[in-house]
Amino acid sequence: MLYLVRMDVHLPHDIPAPIAEEIKAREKAYSQDLQRQGKWQQLHRVVGEYANYSVFDVDSHDELHTLLSGLPLFPYMTMQVTPLARHPSSIR
Amino acid sequence: MLYLVRMDVHLPHDIPAPIAEEIKAREKAYSQDLQRQGKWQQLHRVVGEYANYSVFDVDSHDELHTLLSGLPLFPYMTMQVTPLARHPSSIR
Amino acid sequence: MLYLVRMDVHLPHDIPAPIAEEIKAREKAYSQDLQRQGKWQQLHRVVGEYANYSVFDVDSHDELHTLLSGLPLFPYMTMQVTPLARHPSSIR
Amino acid sequence: MLYLVRMDVHLPHDIPAPIAEEIKAREKAYSQDLQRQGKWQQLHRVVGEYANYSVFDVDSHDELHTLLSGLPLFPYMTMQVTPLARHPSSIR
Amino acid sequence: MLYLVRMDVHLPHDIPAPIAEEIKAREKAYSQDLQRQGKWQQLHRVVGEYANYSVFDVDSHDELHTLLSGLPLFPYMTMQVTPLARHPSSIR
Amino acid sequence: MLYLVRMDVHLPHDIPAPIAEEIKAREKAYSQDLQRQGKWQQLHRVVGEYANYSVFDVDSHDELHTLLSGLPLFPYMTMQVTPLARHPSSIR
Amino acid sequence: MLYLVRMDVHLPHDIPAPIAEEIKAREKAYSQDLQRQGKWQQLHRVVGEYANYSVFDVDSHDELHTLLSGLPLFPYMTMQVTPLARHPSSIR
Amino acid sequence: MLYLVRMDVHLPHDIPAPIAEEIKAREKAYSQDLQRQGKWQQLHRVVGEYANYSVFDVDSHDELHTLLSGLPLFPYMTMQVTPLARHPSSIR
Amino acid sequence: MLYLVRMDVHLPHDIPAPIAEEIKAREKAYSQDLQRQGKWQQLHRVVGEYANYSVFDVDSHDELHTLLSGLPLFPYMTMQVTPLARHPSSIR
Amino acid sequence: MLYLVRMDVHLPHDIPAPIAEEIKAREKAYSQDLQRQGKWQQLHRVVGEYANYSVFDVDSHDELHTLLSGLPLFPYMTMQVTPLARHPSSIR
């Protein structure tokens, strides 16, 4: 089942740079692991913003929330989740 | 180059049903032709809404606008276009 | 899987009363059938508005969209769909 | 009488972790006690957000405000309260 | 129990004047009857708008929705309902 | 002349508790004094929020602004002020 | 007492031109009469919009609402009314 | 003096096609005349929308409003006008 | 040329009182100087808010931006600037 | 390919002045370098705001994001990016 997720990152300016870098490094590894599993199907940068649009393919709402709330940057993000259904004109 | 496009359809209630059906049939053919060409890469229904999220892969803003404004339903749609860049954590 | 859905009805004022009544009667039957099946678990009126908050329990996004888009009042509604996950403090 | 309540939690990032954990533990106990009393009838996580949708069944506005403002996380929450009435199509 | 209600009236411009006047006359009678019963405690015009702020004192959400949805102008109104609780600094 | 005022309080989390309590105590005394004078006619808690809806009866905009800006909590509040006129259907 | 009023005009496109012209002519006369009386102190066009910002100087909310609701274009306008108080830095 | 103007066109669906075409032809001629005069310096289509962003270079607010309100499509447009000043980092 | 400007002040709570007072004193002097020059024609307090509506009469966008950005409170303000044109019904 | 970009700067008040000045100096140099290369075609101050409207001419979304995210002020900015296409009435 597919979900479109928009994530906006708001890192506080007073986080020490090494800590911020460490969080981002863990975020990248976490994200790439989910991409390799096929659960995080797409990951695109929104031009000009510290934000992304992603597509997830998971089995349930609970699985998606577990994945998203486990993101190292989760405490610093706002998210919008949109469930996607099959479109009758899609050729896939 | 990738663009995320959200399209919301607002067909007036007083359009005669046969005309509405004819427009939708042309829309479907037009959409599937672009999908087969690889320009309209993804097409998903937003659950509960007469709306879709799509991803286009085209060479320029002008090409995208030409494709979108040629949609048979274009006069009845509102659109939001978001340019997408490569994300540094994407494995693709 | 649970979804919270808010539905707002906007019936055009120039729909003849008998037609509006017939649509509403079909809507009621359709809704009560889904309630009896256990798919439309809750249905509440928003006080002072021609709107409701509902909870659906279905197997997939596709099933939910099929149910919602089949509502006789669907062409006259705007909807907001929110996927709900298990809350760690819930005792259920 | 039923109320739909959406709660969004905004814990400041500079709260020491042990204090945050202690507040959350008290929140959980408080919430589960109200659930067992039948006053907090439903509690669902909004997917991807530090937020919940809840349904309360209490006797009066005053009782609801007393319950909500007593939440250990109340100073860090924004809330939207919607009174719910019986829907004429509900089979309950 | 008290509720603050804001009502905005949007009468379509193509309603024949005699019909509009008849609806407004019934609205006035309906409103004054509820005021005399003590259920519609306050009724104020918002300056410069075809809108009002009202305070209702009723026993339940269901009673309020029944009163509001029975307004002759109800099909032409949008409403916002806010439940009000006792304020600890109020001297009443 | 009547004004509807909505006040939302946003006390910073790092204000020491004794100072916050002292401000709130002064706020309460200030508010009750104006209520006894008949200028602050109504004061209601918005359910679930650190906010109130109030009705003031004063002689001029200047008098209202003087009263409001003198509130001990004024630096921590956002306010919306709506002037109210007599409604032609009011029986008062 | 001063009020800032923003008025936006939304004339339906299907009003016959002679009727629209007649309404506008009455609006102009009505407006200029109030300007000459000193009650409508300022009247400015918002650049690029069928809208104006005005300042009224009247004795009460009721007087202002009577003036505004008497405008020939009132049924086709949306209005925002902001009460203005003396500013402590004003030299007037 | 420069102004950024965003124009959104909302042509009613029931305007006969020949009349719409005639209005658009006049709009194009009007626009190109102002471009040749150097007053309408830039004109860009917003991708996916029946809208444009334009830059005007005129001597006064009054001149701009006269130009904009003279557009054949003006009755069917909403506009946002933003005055632009010289930027200290601009090399022009 | 006239501009309507709304200014909202957001002084951080942790600015030491003497520094805040000094900024406000400079703001007042700066403002009154511009009022005496006839450039800051009107200055009104928005009732209940730490905000004002002002009218400026200057020769160009650049002059206005220079005046506004020179305000001692400018770093703590949000502003909305609306260019005003002559209204055809104005008697001035 | 052209993009309209609006940038709003939100420098935290507690950044030491020398550091803020150093960031701004680097921002200016960075911006002027891109202007000289023809990539940052226009740069205008929004009157009354710490914001600008800019037009970029680059080859791809990726190039634009690289340029924007390299701005020394990027961590303190919010941005809105709008892709611009050729307008059929433009004479250029």
Automatic annotation (TrEMBL), chains A, B, C, D, E, F, G, H, I, J:
GO molecular function term, any single one: muconolactone delta-isomerase activity
Native organism: Caballeronia terrestris
UniProt family annotation: Belongs to the muconolactone Delta-isomerase family.
Subunit structure: Homodecamer.
The EC number(s) this enzyme carries: 5.3.3.4
Pfam family for this entry, one: MIase
Listed pathway(s): Aromatic compound metabolism; beta-ketoadipate pathway; 5-oxo-4,5-dihydro-2-furylacetate from catechol: step 3/3
Repressor found in the keyword field: no
Keyword Metal-binding: no
Name of the protein described by the UniProt record: Muconolactone Delta-isomerase
Organism taxonomic ancestry: Bacteria, Pseudomonadati, Pseudomonadota, Betaproteobacteria, Burkholderiales
Catalytic activity as recorded in UniProt: (S)-muconolactone = (4,5-dihydro-5-oxofuran-2-yl)-acetate
Top-level lineage group: Bacteria
